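Posting for a labmate who doesn't have an account.
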Amino acid sequence: MESAGAALARLCDPAAEVSAHYLICERGRVWQLVDEDARAWHAGAGRWGDVGDVNSRSIGIELANRGDHPYPRPQMAALEMLMRGIMARRAIPPARVIAHSDLAPGRKTDPGPCFDWRGLARAGLSVWSDAGAEGAADWLLFEAAAARFGYPVGDVDREALLAAFRLRFRPQATGPLDRADCARMADLAARFPVDRLEPNA
């Protein structure tokens, strides 16, 4: 959306069939639009680990940003404060903080390449990897690690998966899969494997 006001109007319009628990504007104002105990319609079709209905098991936070410019400090400060409260109330570990682009590669691209995931991880609110470029550039190893970390590997093509991973963990990277992609994905999968549902859950 072009502005926080436009985003707020859309998120509050029943005809749009989209909603989020929270919206944060560029200046740091926070609107709560849906109670945290209620289901919001922010994720849509997608998956993380074994969870296919992400809307039913998540708190959705939208940030007013077109996706092609940095997120202002007041907005990020408000986000961090909001996240600390939510994560404490809900016992959400940093590894379970994901992007819309993570759960729906190829369909969603937000929060985009300008979002400061590294800073969020430094604040203890997400995860990050600075693993070096050891090993080989191997698609099978990359996909196996991506699935362990939580990405919906079987639901998307390889290029969409790589693009989603890079949006979050290597936003300046271009070109084909390389050793740094594989090393970082392997590191994330080893340290933060996604929780799997019990067979009868």
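Reply:
Got it, the structure tokens are right above this. The first helix runs from residue 4 to 11.
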